[in-house]
Amino acid sequence: MSARGEALEEAPGHAAGRALEGAGIGVDEAAVIARVRAGEAEAYAELVRAFTGVALRAAAALGAGADAEDVVQQSFFKAYRALGRFRDGSAFKPWLLSIVANETRNTVRSAARHRSAAGREAALTEAEPLIPASADPAVAAVERERRAALLAALDHLGEDHRRVVTYRYLLELDEAETAEALGWPRGTVKSRLNRALRKLERLLPDQRLPEGGEGR
């Protein structure tokens, strides 16, 4: 098997099992991408390890459900095939997440089903737990309840509003990264986020929500 074939088999094929391993890995994206473009296909596994966790969380939050691992594997494969079109100087994560979003949307539509809030919560937790195991049990319980309420409320938003809240606050992308991942101007991200948060405030009057205009 060629080096390129080995990299694709090694990297995307085992992405789901390495979500926690890769969650905190720092990687010099530009250097790795340059190596892959130069023919060192096995270097792509470094990007897979670094970004599998957030890719799984994105797929789960956007409704991929039990298909999240397949969505992520296919997304990494498509990203690999498209590296020649990747714009130098751009961040890899929002670019990858835009592919994950498209792949998730296609998967959900082809399956003609939508995940419930409870299903998304379970998938998100399985993909990459956001509450540390060392957290105080009472604090962890409150956080789980808060997240469950937020996910349930997201079901009452339109697709664009649900996606912008998911990327900004569940996946913790900044405004510029969210704009790149969704393919929207930053002004559109800000305005849709503001409208989404106003709707969530009405649905969740007891929760303190972030300010929509934050430009982090």
TrEMBL record:
SUPFAM superfamilies: Sigma2 domain of RNA polymerase sigma factors, Sigma3 and sigma4 domains of RNA polymerase sigma factors. Residues 46-113 form the RNA polymerase sigma-70 region domain. Transmembrane segments: none annotated. The keyword rRNA processing does not apply. Keywords: DNA-binding, Sigma factor, Transcription, Transcription regulation. Pfam families: Sigma70_r2 (PF04542), Sigma70_r4_2 (PF08281). GO terms for molecular function: DNA binding; sigma factor activity. GO terms for biological process: DNA-templated transcription initiation. InterPro entries: RNA_pol_sigma-70-like (IPR039425), RNA_pol_sigma-70_dom (IPR014284), RNA_pol_sigma70_r2 (IPR007627), RNA_pol_sigma70_r4_t2 (IPR013249), RNA_pol_sigma_r2 (IPR013325), RNA_pol_sigma_r3/r4-like (IPR013324), WH-like_DNA-bd_sf (IPR036388). Residues 148-200 form the RNA polymerase sigma factor 70 region 4 type domain. Belongs to the sigma-70 factor family. ECF subfamily. This is Putative RNA polymerase sigma-E factor. It comes from Streptomyces aurantiacus JA 4570.
